């Protein structure tokens, strides 16, 4: 007879009462757990239960301004940037390491959870927005100032001297807002001791989706993001589709929000890579900190090696925790908003059942258990049904078991757990780590799901129902339950027909795709070219963005980032094809402000296109890995905003060393070109 593992035993027994609960485990589990698990060796497992990132608290309304029904359209927040003390669990030693890192905090002196300064968690709080809002972020740079002569450099693309990473700014990654002034302007620098308020006017037609924020100070971006300075921006949508307009996928996914009522932000899965180390180790990777050692991130050498993350020996964290336990239910549809904020390495995320949960949970408290991960995660795969990437809803749901998450990517997935027990969430290693120059083995258990039987669902789940059938049934029920006042029957029929016909989401796509005729017209006009390259110049590796691959057989310094040079001048109201390539290595291309649609992917040597490009043609993104020997065509429109912004490689140490370009959108001149500027120039 098959029994299933209730959540209350996983969360309480494993954390606190292993011996008293052994009989309960034996009665409820699908495997024989009627043995001593010796779970006292698991260090404070209750502290490793996954929690959602805290929501950033809005600033109170000014005392001299009366309340208004329009207050909901304006939100103001404070973010304090300072060193904070805390701890990060280290599976290598099965202990918590003390760390002191640059961080975003909600108050002048407390950690994110309101406890004292020494209890910081290194992730930024989530900000939930709505289309039509004005959202302000006041940054308070409380990092210490260093002497100018200590931080002086003659090359803006050279690594900063030790510790000189305290200038900052803010980027709202993926938001469709102005890049100028005090909006999403990454071309300014906020010095220590300076306060500055960003203001984002979120358009009323802004897509609902998953975005994120992080520093974008040239030369310090990798160090600050790798310190944990990254947080989710969730734009929630409540727009129902109509016969003539598309709506927000959120309206049919509301029934699948977390049980605790936390809303969409409760679905956030913020993945981070923090390669801290101790000064007593001379910042030598993989050496455990001494008992009283404190991990820091102060030397660019901790991030600039192509395999820096692998060599650091650290582990990907989720919502500020390393290898957390996730309490979930079977036969329930979940939505995860996954955000890869890593500074360098790929996460090929896989969810797989563990046939021996007893052994898996024991491994959570054992040092150096990496070699056992593949052995422990030996059951069936959980299908991830991707409904959006980079915050933009797909035109059809894409099923996958391997989810390639590159730095900067977001992936919104729906999934369900078919059986009670334990599931591994881990980084697959039997594929290339495409963001480095080499194939590397970086097996890392990211988290463990403890799944208990969902009694409410058991009566309506059909025997042998596939994950796809379950997904379709749940979405169908969600659509049919929507009130007719918001969703007329004719529109419901269209949505249901699309779902039945290939899991299509045509009524929820935020941007109109490019027609065949539009693509042909664009191919007859000027293209923009981006070619990533790392070349030796003057005995030094130079990170650069070139034009056409055939234009520069001998790279020149003009291709290395110059903050005073505009590399692409674009005309407002036009649309254009870009061609992306890489001369060596693989580089995630990211461009600010305007997203793009992928319209073509091919190999330049006639070989097979890389597996991670499967199902990407036609999707909209703002970040895309460009693999060597591939040519990628993307199409984009320059809408609404003029001003200067950047494109770059989202391997952040590459960006900091010059793999970036300035882009400028200008007004049309009325003659088919662009206007250079006003005042007669």
TrEMBL record:
InterPro entries referenced in this protein's UniProt entry, alphabetically: Cu-oxidase-like_N, Cu-oxidase_C, Cu-oxidase_fam, Cu_oxidase_CS, Cu_oxidase_Cu_BS, Cupredoxin
Protein's cellular compartments: Periplasm
Domain Plastocyanin-like: from-to ranges: 166-237, 560-665
Domain of life: Bacteria
Claim: Thylakoid is one of the keywords in the record: no
Annotated organism of origin: Janthinobacterium kumbetense
CDD domains, sorted: CuRO_1_Tth-MCO_like, CuRO_3_Tth-MCO_like
Protein known as: Multicopper oxidase family protein
Keyword Signal listed: yes
Alphabetized UniProt keyword annotations: Metal-binding, Oxidoreductase, Signal
PROSITE patterns per the UniProt record, alphabetical: MULTICOPPER_OXIDASE1, MULTICOPPER_OXIDASE2
Chief location category: periplasm
One Pfam family linked to the record: Cu-oxidase_3
Residues annotated as signal peptide: 1-26
